[in-house]
């Protein structure tokens, strides 16, 4: 499995770069370059070195030192770009692995698992998953890769139980309205951001992406790095790809939950019917000893639940919760024609003429309907 650059490695790389920036400042004979991020500090050091090199009155020794400083800054920026490219390539694989690991999770498990897996797989320091309901943003689960420090405690305390109107958060409101991921690299001055959460989170930039189910945004995912490494366009692209995959994962989990509830209701319904028939038998008293032979035309073949294949049981499970052929095809990643063929085989094998009758017949012969068809 490909491994992405971890948050700890990013922090170590940033610290090393800052130490080398101090050496560059020494070469230029200037104080340490202050900046909010390593990338900003490198850009500032490069501008200063270029200014020094171009000064006409500069001595040869100073010009040579400035050239060395400029060359070192160039090397550091090149290495940063190379690290970003390597991380992006590896992270593409991590998107797939992250999604694969979540495929069998329930909706409640997804809420707690996604933030941690996103941080560890894609080298983010923090991730928060929120639900969206009636134009209100409701934080559900917040994960820190490094959970030490008062800032994290204050942030967690703020979002716990928070209900944020999307009218006060234009950036998130736009993401929900357009179903398109977005980012901000200057949240303090960006008019679109919700300033209260920006202040308590001390974020220097973040990406927010929608999670969509049946054409509606049901959740939003926030990610950032509360270190000195800023969010980039590459991060936006990766999170955009991930959010599309997570939308499918959530749809699958929601359908599985509905299927499980429907299966339970079907079991309860047939249990009630069986109890009522038993009660009627008790009231009617003993039956005549001479057996009554049913007409041959009314007899059904003696079959068991094993008559259906694993895929046919999976299709029947979706039918049980009222899914259309198109929905079944999308969920199982097959064509609608294939679904129709499976339905035809199911009704033939069970000796029924309708989809609902097939569900009832399958349960009657001891079959169990579940989100994951039995092997």
TrEMBL record:
It comes from the Bacteria. Gene3D superfamilies: 3.30.450.40, Winged helix-like DNA-binding domain superfamily/Winged helix DNA-binding domain. The keyword Transcription applies. GO terms for molecular function: DNA binding. The keyword Magnesium does not apply. CDD domains: LuxR_C_like. Keywords: DNA-binding, Transcription, Transcription regulation. PROSITE patterns: HTH_LUXR_2. GO terms for biological process: regulation of DNA-templated transcription. Pfam families: GAF, GerE. Residues 301-366 form the HTH luxR-type domain. PANTHER family: DNA-BINDING TRANSCRIPTIONAL ACTIVATOR DEVR_DOSR. This is LuxR family transcriptional regulator. It comes from Gordonia asplenii.
